[in-house]
Design brief:
The protein is mainly α. It contains ten helices and no strands. The longest helix has 24 residues.
Length: 191
């Protein structure tokens, strides 16, 4: 008789995360995870104090996955890179995206927005575009709104743009936003 497989915390977390990515958090429960691991629910509750504990670990793993996406695109603008990565995350991980950024009243979207509005991003845009801090911050907000809208459309299956087209749309929105901000910066009526 072969030795019984020892179920580890990492195995539970990985299998649960796979379920989360494919079917959404609603699919993750003690029975479904145990069935996927071909074991009883006992190992789950020996490593996690309850399903809330497991789901909190899954939320953290989703945030870590998202953070990795933010650092994948290397271009000429940190802001554009973040927008492209955010949209790519929605395309490649629609269930995670929906869970993290499309839940009503949960304030989850601020996590992504805060990443795009951090001082290093705003400062980089000041240096690249010649905009002052306030103008660069406003540009970052506009780009966040654009990126979130496009990402939500992609994640919900309402449109399917390939990454080349996404990059073009982000570049056009960015260029238009910079030009508009620079025009207003030089307009004496705007001062």
């Amino acid at each position: 008789m072969p030795p019984k497989q020892r179920i580890t915390r990492e195995m539970i977390l990985e299998r649960s995360f796979t379920m989360f990515c494919r079917e959404g958090m609603e699919a993750v429960n003690a029975r479904s995870v145990a069935k996927a691991l071909n074991c009883s629910t006992q190992p789950i509750f020996s490593y996690f104090s309850g399903m809330d504990d497991l789901k909190n670990a899954l939320d953290q793993k989703a945030r870590d996955t998202f953070e990795q996406f933010l650092h994948t695109v290397q271009g000429d603008s940190l802001l554009k890179d973040y927008c492209i990565a955010y949209i790519r995350f929605a395309i490649e991980q629609p269930r995670l995206f929906a869970h993290m950024f499309l839940r009503i009243g949960e304030g989850q979207g601020s996590f992504a927005m805060n990443a795009m509005l951090r001082d290093p991003v705003v400062d980089a845009e000041c240096a690249k575009t010649g905009l002052n801090h306030e103008q660069a911050h406003a540009l970052c907000v506009e780009m966040w709104v654009f990126a979130h809208g496009l990402a939500a459309i992609q994640a919900s299956g309402q449109a399917e743009f390939d990454m080349e087209r996404v990059e073009q749309m982000v570049a056009h929105a960015y260029e238009a936003g910079v030009l508009r901000a620079q025009k207003h910066a030089g307009d004496p009526q705007e001062s």
